[in-house]
């Protein structure tokens, strides 16, 4: 039986069940899809980059 626990997304900070883990941090399916389709010129792009830096900061802490 598959376990469906909720995790907090590092991008939107909402608790979701479905998504991916990068290192030990969770990104929900919704944010992943939005990030993949966001142009580098879009204002949200810098927000995504900033939020994803948490992955490397926590890993190297």
Task: Characterize the structure shown.
The protein is α+β, with helices and mostly antiparallel strands and 61 residues long. It has one domain (7-60). The chain has 2 helices and 4 strands; from the N terminus they run ββββαα. The protein has helices at 29-36, 43-60; strands at residues 7-8, 15-16, 19-22, 25-28. Strands 1-2 form a two-stranded antiparallel sheet. Strands 3-4 form a two-stranded antiparallel ribbon. A hairpin with a 2-residue loop joins strand 3 and strand 4. The chain is globular, with a radius of gyration of 12 Å. The protein starts with 6 loop residues before the first strand and ends with a helix. The mean pLDDT is 90.
Short description:
The protein is of the alpha+beta class and 61 residues long.
Q: Could you outline the blueprint of secondary structure elements for this entry?
A:
Blueprint (H helix, E strand, L loop, with lengths): L6 E2 L6 E2 L2 E4 L2 E4 H8 L6 H18 L1
Antiparallel strand pairs: 1-2, 3-4
Which characteristics define this entry?
61 residues; alpha+beta; 4 strands; Sigma-G_inhibitor_Gin
């Amino acid at each position: 039986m598959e376990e469906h626990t909720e995790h907090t997304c590092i991008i939107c900070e909402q608790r979701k069940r479905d998504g991916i883990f990068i290192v030990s941090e969770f990104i929900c399916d919704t944010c992943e899809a939005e990030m993949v389709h966001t142009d580098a010129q879009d204002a949200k792009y810098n927000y995504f980059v900033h939020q994803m830096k948490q992955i490397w900061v926590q890993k190297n802490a």
